[in-house]
Amino acid sequence: MTMTIRNLTRRFGQTEVLRGIDLTVEKGELVALLGPSGSGKTTLLRIISGLDWPDAGQLTVAGGDWLAKKAEERRTGFVFQHYALFPHMKVRDNIAFGLTVLPRDRRPPPVQIRARVAELLQFLQIPHLADRYPSELSGGQRQRVALGRALAIDPEVLLLDEPFGALDAQVRRDLRRWLREVHDATGTTTIFVTHDQEEAFELADRVVVMGAGQIEQIGRPDEIYDHPASPFTARFLGLTVEIPVNLRAGRIEAPGLDGSALSRRAMADGPATLFLRPSDITPVPDPEGAFRITEAVSTGALLRLRLEGPADCIAEAELPRRAGVPGLIPGQRVRLRPEAGQIFPGGPGPVQAAAVPSLKTKESLQ
Ligand SMILES: Nc1ncnc2c1ncn2[C@@H]1O[C@H](COP(=O)(O)OP(=O)(O)O)[C@@H](O)[C@H]1O
Ligand SMILES: [Mg+2]
């Protein structure tokens, strides 16, 4: 079954929280919705599951109109960040819950429910937890159980809203791998919400970048990582260094910048902004260089440099500390060699105007 979302809009009062979402999710796909807090990810999931309703737009699954269906008719499984397990029920009863509350005509007999639960406990590698209560589980174990509960009804669509957000880094990584295995074995169409880039990129077949109620970009993880399509996506994906440049015949020109490693762009001549990841900048010691190191900090693995360039341009570079390039100390001058980066037309003025919210108040508009 394919899920198709067309021009979905949701307002809360005057605020447009979803502004015309168009998205197609294919059967068996694992799609990550990636975006900063407040970008509308949870609202979109709630609408898909039937916990909330859009003001306009369409939502179809396998050609059927889901907006005409109530939540309980949609067969979605939902896992939230904060474990919503029933505290007074053992793990096996939590997992069975969705089946025991089905309408009588669709509810399997108790012996089948027990068999389904036993099968899921095995499959999710948690049979030893069957008779525990949620308070006797770690955070990671609770989320495994929550996924079991969501899968018990054999959902058409599985919706996961930052399910690992409250767990520590190592547990998150383990669960990520485990979830991908579970997904590959069940083939359940899955939408996974996260604000963590690494999580989205490692897990998903496709990543949907959301910003302020709109889809900024859809693509395979590597595609998005290498070619962020907008200044918003670039900044969100860590291309935090912005250097004003001039484009001439597809090449960048700027004082102190050696653009020879960047491929030629099919872009018009004129002012542009180069977006870079600090780790994609190689600083080359050069007494004539236009950038000056003002700060050098070691994180153990990395050496992080703060650099001041012409026209108040501030850059940051990050390189393996063990590379041990001599001369990278405060006060020294360098030129910068970007190894990869993204160029958007327009100088710092227009590019920034797109991202910085307007500070105009009602009064100042009058
Ligand atoms: N029930 C609601 N009433 C009013 N505003 C809401 C409601 N739910 C969400 N919002 C607002 O909608 C925006 C998007 O929220 P949300 O979908 O939770 O974003 P995300 O999950 O990406 O953090 C936020 O600005 C939030 O404050
Ligand atoms: Mg949310």
TrEMBL record:
Residue ranges of the TM segments: none
Disordered: annotated segments: 342-366
Protein's UniProt keywords contain Cell inner membrane: no
Pfam family for this entry, one: ABC_tran
EC number: 3.6.3.25
PROSITE patterns xrefs: ABC_TRANSPORTER_1, ABC_TRANSPORTER_2
Biological processes, Gene Ontology terms: quaternary ammonium group transport
Keyword set, alphabetical order: ATP-binding, Hydrolase, Nucleotide-binding, Sulfate transport, Translocase, Transport
Domain ABC transporter: 3-237
One cellular-component annotation, GO: ATP-binding cassette (ABC) transporter complex
Gene Ontology molecular function: ABC-type sulfate transporter activity; ATP binding; ATP hydrolysis activity
UniProt-listed PANTHER family: SPERMIDINE/PUTRESCINE IMPORT ATP-BINDING PROTEIN POTA (PTHR42781), SPERMIDINE_PUTRESCINE IMPORT ATP-BINDING PROTEIN POTA (PTHR42781:SF4)
Protein name: Sulfate/thiosulfate import ATP-binding protein CysA
Gene: cysA_4
